[in-house]
Amino acid sequence: MFPIDHDLHCHSFVSGCSLDPEQNPAAMLAFAKAHHYTAMCVTDHLWDPDAPGVFTCYKRQTTELQKSILPLPREEGIRFEFGCETEWRGILDGKPTLGLAPEHYGEFAFIIIPPNHFHFRPHVRPDDCDTPPKVAQLLVTRLEELQALPLPWEKVGIAHMNCGLVFREGRPSDVFNAIDEDRYRAAMRFFAAKGAGIEINCSSFGNPDFAAHPEAHFRLFRMAKEEGCRFYLGSDAHHPAELMDVPNRAPAIIEALGLESKHLYRLP
Question: 3-state class of 106 per DSSP?
Fold first, then answer.
């Protein structure tokens, strides 16, 4: 079976969307121990001061702020790592706009990149990208553009493909159904060949749109699986109770997708 023994996407109080003092590394590690995890990764939001294109809500999410939680506590048998969730704005004015500068790739054990933080308008999604087909095309374009970056792909995670933030003003499932299958499969083949992980973001499966249209959401992961991708679990927790999203939701997701241990992504 695909093991439910890790959470590689969770935030601490230094992420601006958390700011919860109870969401701290010691509490995260205690949760990991209580649930017999072998790995957990703190992935706070980041816009590196050495990277171009920052916008207002990311200005406080500096590398210096992230490192303020170090050193992380340790527990025998649990790999507790320092990672980040940076931001991807695509190619702007002919230049890739990633919130992490290449000279700092080595400072993180895991680099999570969301291709679909499309609630950030117009910074990540242009205002005229306002229908499910247009958003679907933009999502695939973001995945394609990302491939041009000289990233350390073996320690990169592609975050929350079915996140509800992709289209908050409508049904995300309409976006997922409109995705060009050939282009999407080609992107997944690239990530598979490079050894990147595809995130099963358990919080995204709590979205009401998933309950109403599950197959549209599962479609993204079925195609990725068929193209040879490997997967990891993430709660995307911003508060302590949300860490339970992995143990509560992962079993049903794993069963529905038919995931086995051979489909597991592990941190290098």
Answer: helix
Eight-class DSSP state of 93: T
Tokens representing residue 71 in the block: 């050193």
| In a domain? residue 268 | no
Rounded CA-CA distance 254/227 in Å is 17
Beta carbons of 104 and 94 less than 8 angstroms apart: no
> The tokens 């099963």 sit on which residue?
200
pTM over 0.70: yes
Let me know: does 201 contact 236? Beta carbons within 8 Å: yes
Q: What is the 3-state secondary structure (H, E, C) of 121-165?
A: CCCCCCCCCCCHHHHHHHHHHHHHHHCCCCCCHHHEEECCCCCHH
Q: CATH number of the domain that 40 lies in? A: 3.20.20.140
Pairwise CA distance, residues 142 & 84, whole Å: 19
Q: pLDDT, tens digit, for every residue of 171-202?
A: 999 999 999 999 999 999 999 999 999 999 99
Q: Which residue has the tokens 């394609």?
A: 144
Q: Whose structure tokens read 């597991």? A: 264
* Counted domains in the chain: 1
What is the extent of the structural domain holding 205?
A: 6-263
Radius of gyration, CA atoms only, the chain: 17
Tokens of 228: 């040879």
Query: For 74, which DSSP code?
Result: -
At 89, list the tokens.
């704005």
